[in-house]
Amino acid sequence: MSKLLSHFNFANLSTAVVAFMLFVLSYDLNRQFDQYLLFTQGVSLLFIPAGIKLLAILVGRVPAMIGLYLASVYLSVGLWSTLDVASYYYFATISLLTYSAAVYLVLKVFGIGSNLTNLKYSHIVFMSLLACLMNGILHNLVYLSQGVAEFTALLTNRAAMSLGDFLGCFIVVAGFNAALQIVRSLK
Questions:
Q1: pTM
Q2: What topology does CATH give the domain 2-186?
Q3: Domain residue limits, the chain
Q4: Which of 57, 50, 48, 46 has its CA nearest to residue 15?
């Protein structure tokens, strides 16, 4: 326990809090588009928080993952008020694990160092695609197991979630990349 607490510092706490806040704020922003883009409860055709999650995990690592997990559980309470509390944790776990696995796999396969200096835009796009596909499949299987989705809608829900997550990742990553390019040009 003391070893765990020794890694707990202000920077890690700040990273977790920033990840939490960015995810919640992006979720609230995304809800503004629900009347146009909500496919079914829990599935949007544009999900901006997916991009926030991907970048937060990539940059903030474990502290960001803690903030994202807590944010997912927090948001599930409002979205799935009729479900058992355990469902909130299942949804948050699958969501976090699929994105974390995608980041980890792409970093390993392409030999990207922990400082991300050799990370390319194409790596992030590939990471987004992998995360969105894995999340769409596994998340909807958990939805099925929790009675949130019908088996007959599994394929369409999975495809819609993957598309929404990918578009959200694309928008956030493209915006982040554009901001980096502007900052670099000002130097």
A1: 0.86
A2: Arp2/3 complex 21 kDa subunit ARPC3 (1.10.1760)
A3: 2-186
A4: 57
Buried residues in 121-146 as b, exposed as e (16+ CB within 10 A): eebbbbbbbbbbbbbbbbbbebbbeb
Q: Which residues of 12-41 are buried (b: 16+ CB within 10 A; e: fewer)?
A: beebbeebbebbbebbeebbeeeeebbbee
Instruction: Give burial (CB, 10 Å; 0-12/13-18/19+) of 60.
Output: buried
Per-residue pLDDT of the chain (187 residues; tens, 9 = 90+): 555 555 668 888 999 999 999 999 999 999 999 899 988 877 889 999 999 999 999 999 999 999 999 999 999 887 767 777 777 788 889 889 999 999 999 999 999 988 888 888 889 889 999 999 898 888 777 777 777 666 666 678 788 888 999 999 999 988 988 888 888 888 7
The single-letter code of the amino acid at 140 is N
Angle at 128 between CA 153 and CA 94, to 5 degrees: 55
